[in-house]
Amino acid sequence: EQAKWHLENKKWAESLSAEKSRLEQQLEKLTKERDEQAKWHLDNKKWAEGLSADKSQLEQQLAQLTNAREEQTRLANERYLQIQQLTVERDQKSKMLAESQQKFSDFEQQRGELEHRQRLLDEEMIKAEAQLDLIKDILIREKAF
Fold this sequence. Notes:
This protein is mostly helical.
């Protein structure tokens, strides 16, 4: 009976030893998986922190670009208003120039007419002076006779 117990204890010990070996292998496998998951978790955490920093930097850049765009829009609106104002002024000055040119042209035409009249008057004056000289000569000759 002792031999039977001894045999059962041996089987039981072998069974426990096999169970222990299996559990140790399972423990080793689970430990390895845990370590890999911990490493993966750490890598993901670093990656997430990097993404968070990138996101923060991109948000700052976005804010800067948004401000720059708003400033450019403001400047563009100012320039547009200036262009409109300058266009109105240019159109007014162009109209004034056209009116001045028309007046100048009218004055030139009047000057030409006045010069022509002056020439005619000068010619008439020369004729009148000649006639006066003739009349003088005739009067002087009649007095002399």
